[in-house]
Design a protein that fits this description.
Rossmann fold, globular, four-stranded antiparallel β-sheet, 262 residues, alpha/beta
């Protein structure tokens, strides 16, 4: 699905190497949570995975296509659902429904297929009551759901999601993660997403910690190995979140600090 080999990146004109010797592979039907301190390079890595930025060294292949001068990015992007961490900057039309439609028309789907997909995502993201409304007057959470609906409408094989739940309330954070997990399972799709919330990390199969330009790769249980009470609650989301709320820990920041010390 996605493979990164010996990736290195520096911004033009800078001697600072932001990403160093990064190697990982994401298989079908796999969810990856990417975490790290602010400014560590998570968003930059995502832009590289999209082909928007060019790596300084190394190789990136998506759907068995290597990013180079010959790759057709339009064909690659048709199979990728990308969420930018500032959803308000992604709105370009005058209604919720048109926003979803635009993404589909941009990739030349038939009118019948466009209607089918619009109806489906409006239903699962509960947008029926606001589908004719102008996005600029909606809440940040409603705009986020609109953008996520437009991404799901594309029925991508790979999701690249940069803090997709930041503006969602508690109900929609949990609901979205369930939708993502179910979609990837049914469609044999994959996802890599950034988050600052430990209760979103638990939906992932593996956890990537980005620190000092390098990736530390964990399976979920190893990532939470020092929190045995949480390990016993991984299969019960409500009990897991109740425990976090009552104990007020662990934060992702705390876990990252402990990993770095090692």
């Amino acid at each position: 699905m996605l493979k990164v080999e010996n990736l290195e990146f520096s911004y033009e004109g800078s001697k600072y190497v932001l990403l160093k010797n990064i190697n990982f592979e994401i298989a079908k039907n796999e969810l990856i949570a990417l975490i790290g301190k602010s400014g560590c390079g998570k968003t930059t890595l995502f832009k590289l995975l999209l082909g928007v930025l060019n790596q300084s060294k190394g190789k990136i292949s998506v759907f068995n296509k290597i990013y180079n001068d010959d790759v057709n990015l339009r064909e690659v992007w048709k199979r990728i659902g990308y969420f930018h961490q500032e959803p308000l900057s992604q709105i370009i039309t005058n209604s919720v429904e048109d926003e979803i439609r635009f993404a589909l028309e941009n990739f030349d789907f038939s009118e019948d297929e466009i209607k089918r997909r619009i109806d489906y995502v409006i239903k699962i993201f509960e947008l029926e009551d606001i589908k004719e409304m102008v996005p600029s007057i909606l809440s940040a959470g409603e705009v986020t759901r609109t953008i996520l609906a437009s991404i799901f409408a594309l029925e991508p094989d790979l999701f690249i999601l940069d803090e997709p739940t930041s503006y969602l309330d508690y109900y929609w954070k949990e609901r979205f993660m369930k939708l993502l997990k179910e979609y990837c399972s049914e469609k044999k799709a994959s996802a890599i997403y950034t988050t600052e919330f430990i209760d979103e990390v638990i939906w992932a199969d593996r956890v990537f910690v980005l620190h000092a330009g390098k990736i530390i790769d964990f399976v979920k249980k190893d990532f939470l190995r020092d929190y045995s009470p949480l390990l016993n609650l991984l299969d019960d989301y409500s009990k897991f979140t109740d425990y976090i709320d009552k104990k007020n820990l662990p934060s992702i920041e705390r876990i990252i600090e402990e990993i770095i010390k090692e």
